[in-house]
Amino acid sequence: MCPALIPVVRSRKAPRAPFMTTICRILDQKGHQVWSLRPSDTVYDAIKMMADKDVGALVVLDGSKIVGIVTERDYARNVFLKGRASPQTLVGEIMQRNVMCVNPDNSIEECMAIMTAKHVRHLPVTDDSQLLGIVSIGDLVKTIISDREFAIEQLEHYIRGGKT
Question: Taking the domains of the chain in order of start, what are their residue ranges?
Fold first, then answer.
């Protein structure tokens, strides 16, 4: 179980909330399930798995080592738009090889900054090179909204003087 909140030291660069939700909390809520395949699998297998599991990205593993990530966007740009055939194209030919990973102690804000800077929508979560899960931009936005709603409820409760 992960701690839900970690204290934040205030910086003069950017004001921040006194507590930040960590990626560990998101994984505790959504689960640690990661769907993966090998570079030698076909793109057809990847797209079928994404559709069956209702996910937008799959981690590509060589044994237990992360060697890439393949997304619906990779399929659209590198297979469909180039007129390639999914059953004949290998995942290793279209996957993103420079995979940005985060650790469970990273904050949502840190992950959003990485996603924005690197133009990615999914981040594998690792600890000592062990794959623990994956978070999407949707997971982050959902948690941010939930955290803000909780803060608003707490402020409203405080303003009413603790009366419900």
Answer: 18-159
Q: Please tell me the CATH code under which domain 18-159 is placed.
A: 3.10.580.10
Could you give phi then psi for residue 143, rounded to 5 degrees? -70, -40
**Backbone torsions φ then ψ of 91, nearest 5 degrees:** -55, -40
pLDDT less than 70: residues of the chain: 1-19, 162-164
pTM recorded for the entire structure: 0.80
Which of 132, 97, 143, 139 shows the shortest CA–CA distance to 115? 139
Six-digit token pair at 71? 């997304």
* DSSP string covering 44-105: HHHHHHHHHHT-SEEEEEETTEEEEEEEHHHHIIIIITTT--TTTSBHHHHSBSS---B-TT
